[in-house]
Specification:
The complex is a heterotrimer.
Chain A lengths: L2 E4 L3 E4 L4 E5 L10 H9 L7 E7 L7 E7 L5 E7 L6
Antiparallel strand pairs in A: 1-2, 3-4, 4-5, 5-6
Chain B lengths: L4 E4 L6 E5 L3 H12 L9 E3 L3 E5 L4 E6 L4 H5 L3 E5 L4 E7 L3 H6 L16 E6 L2 E9 L2 E7 H15 L5
Antiparallel strand pairs in B: 1-7, 2-5, 2-6, 3-4, 4-5, 7-10, 8-9, 9-10
Chain C lengths: L12 E5 L2 E5 L5 H7 L6 E2 L6 E2 L12 E4 L6 E5 L9 E5 L13 H4 L8 H4 L5 H14 L13 E14 L3 H12 L4 E5 L7 H4 L8 H11 L3 E4 L1 E6 L4 E7 L11 E15 L3 E3 L12 E3 H9 L8 E6 L4 H10 L3 E7 L6 H8 L4 E3 L1 E9 L2 E9 L2 E6 L2 E5 L2 E3 L2 H5 L4 E4 L4 E4 L6 E3 L22 E3 L4 E2 H9 L5 H8 L12 H12 L3 H4 L13 H5 L16 H5 L4 E5 L2 E6 L7 H14 L2 E4 L4 E6 L3 H8 L12 E7 L5 E11 L2 E6 L4 H15 L6 E4 L4 E7 L3 H9 L9 E6 L2 E6 L8 E7 L3 H14 L3 E2 L2 H11 L32 H4 L10 E10 L7 E3 L8 E8 L6 E8 L8 E6 L4 E8 L14
Parallel strand pairs in C: 1-7, 8-9, 8-13, 9-10, 13-26, 15-22, 16-17, 16-22, 17-18, 31-41
Antiparallel strand pairs in C: 1-2, 3-4, 5-6, 5-7, 11-12, 12-13, 14-23, 19-20, 20-21, 24-25, 27-28, 29-30, 31-37, 32-35, 32-36, 33-34, 34-35, 37-40, 38-39, 39-40, 42-45, 42-47, 43-46, 44-45, 46-47
Helix pairs in contact in C: 5-7, 8-9, 12-13, 12-14, 18-23, 21-22
Chain lengths: 87, 163, 927
């Protein structure tokens, strides 16, 4: 039951978030077939920190990239993604 | 410290106000037209006709008279009605904070979460949006399909609240 | 100091143990009350059914496991040392038949040579038939208590809490830390598993002011701190989250408000562990007899409860602390015949005791206890090489102290070895946790090697594991501590090795020829002490937890007593049977009404999204694999959505309500998934688009009116012309605004009326009156299935099951030729064009009725080449039809196959055909 520092809401319980996928698995919209499928199906799965896409689904519903250590769960960075936001 | 009154409020319109570009310009137009500023994350603001709550970075929920908003948004955003799917539940009394800790994950007991504050969270597996309107009154905005189950949960939990 | 005497007249609580009535003093544990009433025998051991008594005064108790409470409140394996007596408590011993005193199972003790560690594993070798026989008896003999068979009537709460500092342990160190933090303005929570604060101070009062504990607790509360007693910290999780299990009433007790227990999830800024340490027993032959107790436990019974567990005592120790027990016993009027100190030279404390006239033997190690079910009668020991024996009725043992480091290690902390204490203490941690007090500084000990017969020297009392078992595991080649644990089962009982793990580790280290820290430790896992299943289930327990989502029109449906069908988290009407109808006859009547007059159904649960903005169409053409931008205002179309790998995962409709405003509908079951997908695309992939995509699933209710008379019904309701097929208009019914969309799932002319859910009941009522007036009726999901299968319309989860591409589904012509949609790249994979893919087909029965889910075979017992995804009957003409997936199905029309369902014992002969059976030309939609 981790705690994640949402860039918009501050620290909140993991239960409010949903993990979506790793950043390296993202298929860019304009990617050709071979690159798209390579991103989708070839993963690194490091035993260490990795960049993951999470959504604060049951909070502010915003998306963010979380750098999390896969073994210790230490979160070293959280960065917001999405449209330009009014402070 | 454990009394809490729970009641369902009458249905009311509720609108999503979303800004997709030039938020600073929209904010200026809004303040000029309405006389108050678009609230920051986790806060609410209002005049005597229109109230806004901010739960999301690009979205405000609007209650009351939204007639001027489409013009203020212009080509930078849009207004969408969602009130039919939302039930408002009013929690009041000294025990409302303790009640929100039951099957919850959010720090409703934090004294900084006070009047004028908003927060979206999960309570008994239901996504609720909270708005503290007075020292001992909090309104919960609950998806209609889950509202009966959550009301039942709160009624039961209210019977066993000890601080 | 004199010990308090237990006053018999203060014993005002009535309780029973194995049917016999006793009395207890308020504040006594069941163990203390039993000892006070002279009850020594409280249980029979797990495997050998040896007679057992109370050994400790804490949660580490391995022997005195009893069942307390009755009916749904019954709790087996409750430690008698960890339940406080209340009036009416009912307790029973376990694992014995016919009685505790004369237990048939004690014959297992006679066969102990055949039942060492690993015997059960060895029964798996050899004849399976013989194993089935052993298994019957092993099952009957195994286990301790019996689980309750009635539902628990109590409430269990789950509560969140936040604090700056969580302090675990209400002894002197914990109390001091808590008051300092609270008075410094921090949000503080202090927890203590006992019913009262004080811990070691209750057993060993210090030279502190009397009432220091109460005064400090009052200061903590005054400063806003929260103190929870009968609350155990059960686990330490990520990011300083600690779970606490709180007993609001004792096991088996009825609470006034029926709240039995509370599970706290506490997020702490930091955690201070003041958890103390647990005393170790000593390994010698028959060291499990009633009357052999941990030395500090003896002091607790005397000083806290005024109960003296024996009159003629001997003390065996390797440290100074046990001398305090000798003092306590003497002060209570008992005779201490000797202190056996394993250390070769006298410590200061030992010398002090000798000078005071106590008999102290140095270099003394116990060998064997004498006695049986009535209790211990004597002890044999080796004193500086020579054997001596004493007649005693109480042996107090102290083999050193094991700091309670469980939470520290769960927090990812390391442990350091302290040689002079022969113990592990907390080292560093990557979480914000520190350990203070006795857990950080255990007592120094002398190293003590067991000299006794290993076969009868118990180290894990609960699972009946002896030193001989540890030696056996080594002899059989098990080297690592992890294997030792699983092979012998030591440390795997409900006490999780609190008393025995260190002794086993010491033995293993000797065999390996390494130091104890080099031999390693097994992992400490939550919970620290057993947790009730009811508490884990929490408030959701009665109906299993997941909330049912309730239809906006629920009351109107319920009034007609429909057959309900679960669909995701919803329940929707499956059919509305009239008097004498079954599901099948009702559904057929409803479907026929739709084909011949008019029917009405609730489609409110569909996923719906309102998409607004100059880039709305462009956004939709990313999500949807069909074109959208070409729609004129007021027009709509069928659409479907692909995953990035090119396979279809959902379908629906899209309508252009206004120049820059669209309504997208998609499947009920995929609603949450589609909402996440839409948000991901909008926020992560296309943050620059000028679009607002709002989930309006619950805002709009939807009513579908379908049939040849639907046009009259709707025109009557809205007072204007209906939209033509695949068009949408804004209208009103009884003054309330509605959207009317001309779309058909059933295959008849149909209209979907969308209104605000808060206005749905009156709109529904108006629609129903109009439908009934035209001779129509309501229809449910079953009829909807008959209608759409006949028409060849797909359902998500059936035909669209995530394994088929748009090519496989026959939707290729609808793909947006401009590309740019999610899944376009995936469609470029050669495999999606290859032979041997499952393709959508229709099936007509030649003989029999086609079972849903049946496999499609070319011949009986041949390998399946596909399956039936949906089966139904032609609504008007009768006759069994189905939709299915078949390998290379497009090329196999006309082929005869078998649709077989072996699990239901049904099959049919079928012919492969086109996947539509009704109105191929779509004439029903036109005037």
């Amino acid at each position: 039951m981790m705690q994640i520092a949402c860039p918009h809401c501050g620290s909140r319980a993991q239960q409010e978030f949903m993990y979506e996928r790793t950043v390296d698995s993202v298929v860019p919209l304009d990617a050709p077939t071979d690159k798209a499928m390579a991103a989708l199906f070839t993963r690194t799965n490091p035993r260490g920190p990795d960049d993951e896409i999470w959504r604060h689904t049951y909070g502010c519903r915003a998306w963010m990239v979380v750098t999390r250590h896969r073994v210790t769960h230490e979160i070293t960075a959280v960065r917001a993604v999405g449209p330009e936001v009014l402070p | 410290m454990t009394e809490v009154a729970i009641s369902r409020l009458p249905e009311a319109p509720l609108h999503v106000v979303e800004i997709w570009s030039n938020p600073q310009d929209v904010a200026q137009r809004f303040a000029a037209a309405m006389g108050f500023a678009l609230p920051a994350m986790g806060l609410s603001a209002s005049n005597d006709r229109l109230g806004l709550m901010r739960f999301e970075p690009s979205v405000w929920l609007a209650e009351g008279d939204v007639s001027g908003l489409a013009d203020i948004l212009a080509e930078n955003g849009a207004l969408t009605e969602i009130g039919g799917g939302v039930v408002r539940i009013r929690l009041s009394g000294a025990g409302w904070r303790a009640l929100l800790m039951e099957a919850g994950v959010f720090d409703a007991e934090d004294p900084n979460f006070g009047p004028g504050c908003t927060a979206a969270t999960l309570i008994d597996h239901v996504n609720v949006r909270l708005h503290v309107v007075a020292e001992d009154v909090c309104i919960a905005y609950v998806p209609a399909s889950y509202s009966r189950a959550l009301l039942h949960f709160w009624d039961e939990a209210g019977k066993t609240l000890t601080a | 100091m004199t010990a308090p005497r237990r006053a018999a007249k203060a014993a005002t609580l009535n309780f029973t143990f194995d049917g016999k009535a006793y009395r207890a003093v308020p504040g006594e544990t069941l163990a203390a009350a039993l000892l006070a009433n002279g009850v020594k025998l409280v249980g029979r051991s797990f495997k050998y059914h040896r007679p057992r008594g109370i050994m400790t005064a804490g949660v580490e108790e391995p022997n005195a496991l009893v069942t307390v409470g009755e009916g749904g409140r019954r709790e087996p394996n409750t430690r008698a040392t960890d339940v406080f007596v209340y009036d009416g408590l009912v307790a029973r011993s376990q694992n014995r038949w016919p009685s505790l005193r004369f237990d048939f199972g004690s014959v297992f003790g006679l066969f102990s040579k055949a039942l060492p560690a690993g015997f059960y594993y060895k029964t798996f070798f050899g004849s399976a038939k013989r194993w089935m026989i052993y298994e019957y008896f092993i099952r009957k003999a195994a286990g301790l208590g019996n689980a309750p068979t009635e539902a628990d009537p109590d409430r269990f709460s789950h509560r969140a809490a936040f604090c700056d500092v969580l302090i675990v342990g209400g002894g002197p160190a914990g109390l001091q830390a808590a008051v300092e933090e609270a008075e410094a303005g921090k949000r503080v929570i202090l927890v203590e598993q006992d019913a009262i604060l004080g811990a070691s101070l209750i057993r060993d009062p210090q030279t502190l002011d009397a009432g220091w504990v109460e005064a400090t607790a009052a200061r903590i509360r005054k400063a806003g701190g929260r103190i929870l007693t009968r609350t155990s910290a059960s686990g330490y999780w990520e990011h300083d989250l600690v779970t606490l299990t709180q007993l609001c009433v004792e096991p088996g007790q009825t609470a006034e408000n029926r709240l039995a227990q509370r599970l706290w999830r506490v997020r702490a800024g930091r955690v201070i562990l003041a958890t103390g340490s647990i005393e170790r027993p000593i390994a010698f032959a028959n060291n499990d007899r009633p009357g052999i107790m941990l030395s500090q436990a003896v002091r607790t019974y005397i000083r806290r409860f005024g109960v003296v567990p024996g009159q003629r005592a001997i003390i065996a120790t390797n440290n100074d602390d046990a001398y305090d027990t000798a003092d306590a016993l003497i002060a209570a009027g008992a005779n201490v015949v000797a202190v056996l100190d394993a250390r070769e030279t006298a410590s200061g404390r030992a010398a002090h005791a000798q000078a005071a006239g106590m008999t102290v033997h140095l270099g003394a190690v116990p060998k064997a206890a004498k006695g049986g079910r009535q209790g211990v009668t004597g002890l044999v020991a080796s004193v500086a090489g020579a054997t001596q024996s004493w007649a005693v009725d109480l042996i107090a043992v102290s083999g050193g102290f094991t700091p309670v480091v469980h939470l520290h290690q769960q927090a990812g902390g390391t442990l350091n070895w302290v040689e002079e204490a022969q113990a592990f203490v907390p080292g560093s941690s990557r979480q914000n946790v520190t350990t203070i007090g006795g857990a950080a500084k255990p007592e120094a000990v002398g190293v003590m090697r067991p000299i006794s017969q290993p076969k009868k020297s118990f180290i894990d009392f609960q699972n009946d594991v002896t030193l001989a078992d540890v030696d056996l595991a080594w002899a059989e080649g098990y080297r690592s501590v992890e294997h030792l644990k699983r092979y012998t089962t030591l440390g795997m009982a409900t006490d999780q090795g609190k008393l025995g793990n260190m002794a086993a580790l010491g033995r293993l280290a000797e065999q390996q020829g390494v130091s104890i820290p080099e031999a390693g430790l097994t992992t400490f896992r939550p919970p620290y002490t057993p947790v009730s299943m009811g508490l884990i289930a929490g408030p959701g327990a009665p109906h299993g937890g997941a909330h049912i989502r309730r239809l906006a029109l629920y009351d109107l449906h319920a009034a007609k007593a429909p057959i309900w069908q679960p669909l995701g988290y919803w329940f929707r009407p499956r059919a509305y049977p009239q008097a004498g109808e079954t599901l099948a006859t009702a559904a057929l009547r409803e479907a026929r009404a739709v084909r011949t007059s008019v029917g009405m159904t609730d489609v409110s649960t569909l996923a719906k999204f309102e998409i607004t903005g100059p880039d709305a169409a462009a956004f939709l053409e990313i999500i949807c694999a069909t074109s959208v931008a070409k729609l004129a205002i007021g027009r709509g179309r069928y659409t479907f959505m692909l995953r990035e790998d090119g396979l279809a995962f959902d379908d629906g409709t899209v309508w252009r309500l206004d120049e820059n405003r669209y309504l997208l509908t998609s499947s009920t079951g995929g609603a949450d998934r589609m909402a996440t997908h839409i948000s991901y695309v909008r926020q992560y992939l296309c943050p620059h688009l000028r679009v607002s995509a709002v989930n309006v699933q619950e805002h709009y209710a939807g009513i579908a009116i379908a049939g040849p008379r639907a046009k009259q019904v709707v025109e009557g309701l809205i007072g204007q012309d209906v939209p033509r097929h695949m068009s949408a208009i804004a209208a009103s019914i009884h003054g309330l605004p509605v959207h009317v969309l001309a779309a058909s799932y059933s295959g008849e002319r149909a209209f979907e009326v969308y209104c605000s859910a808060s206005e749905a009941p009156s709109i529904w009522a108006a629609c129903e009156a109009a439908v009934l007036a035209q001779g129509g009726c309501l229809y449910g999901l079953e009829a909807m299935e008959f209608l759409r299968i006949e028409k060849g319309h797909l359902v998500v989860g059936g035909e669209i099951d995530g394994r088929l591409s748009p090519y496989d589904l026959g939707l290729e012509k609808m793909l947006n030729k401009a590309g740019g949609f999610i899944g376009a790249a995936g469609l470029g994979r050669p495999a999606l064009r290859g032979k041997g893919r499952r393709q959508l087909v229709g099936l007509e029965a030649i003989e029999g009725n086609i079972p849903e889910g049946a496999m499609l075979l070319s011949a009986p017992n041949a390998a399946p080449q596909g399956h039936v995804s949906a089966a139904a009957f032609r609504v008007l003409e009768g006759g069994s039809i189905a939709l299915g997936q078949l390998i290379n199905g497009f090329d196999r029309h006309g082929e005869e196959m078998i649709a077989a369902s072996p699990t239901r014992g049904q099959s049919a002969r079928v012919r492969v055909t086109h996947p539509h059976f009704y109105d191929l030309a779509g004439e029903r939609y036109r005037d």
